[in-house]
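Hi there, hope your week has been kind to you so far. No rush at all, and the record is pasted right below.
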Amino acid sequence: MKKFAIAAITATSLLTLGACSNNGGGSDDVVASTKYGNVTKDELYQAMKSRDGKAVLTELVHKKILSKQFKVTDKEVDAEYQKIKTQYGPQFDMLVQQQGEAAVRDIVKTDLLRKKAANKEASVTDADIKKYYDTLKGKVHAAHILVQDEKTANEVESKLKSGSKFEDLAKEYSKDSTAQSGGDLGWFGKGQMVKEFETAAFKLKEGEVSQPVKSQYGYHIIKVLETVKPYDQMKDKLKAEVKKQKEQDPATIQNALDKALKEAKVEVKDKALKDTFTKPDPSQQTPQAPTDQQPAQ
């Protein structure tokens, strides 16, 4: 599950807490009663505010302001929900069971709103495209279907020869994490894959599919999706790829959210949550002590 979503989903099951005292009931409304005393809405709100208040408030504000600028349909939420469910399996199912499907769908919708804001924010120049193109030299864009035994590999190969789509078979058979994206491995160069895989992949022409290739991971069936062609032939497609990369850049997402917050003139009234949207002043941060350690290569 995405990091932001884990914290948000944990808190989202209690999204109504922030509004409890504003929905017509008093702050002393009883949530639970015991012979030793009652737990009121105000007590519950204060407890949750101290634990997850900023995360919940951030989620609510983002949803409120972005919903005015962008539209997310139920169909889009359904598609994204199923995509995440397929990708994370039991972990996602557990979250749904614990938090409720409605709460999880709410988070998915807010995430889609953020993505649309990032899409609007991301701009791509010719220089960006050319820079990306230059990184592709000597690389191929390929996909694979990874299975554990030769018998299954031969079965997949037979289905491919009978006309089945590579992407569909990857989703059905592949044991690799790329299965749900049709086995897409993206662009890679020499030295990035195991020897047997690399040797086979770089012999293929664009659109060609390999016979089963054995490696330490199992049996691969490889398809070369693209090879590097002249810049003018690739420019339009690469523009879409660069756009997608920028949309997923945390800096782009944050810039989009900052602009939306500024335009909406957000003002936090609760003193305990006052600095929820306040950025730290770099000049006030304590400098880190130097270290002799080098980053891992």
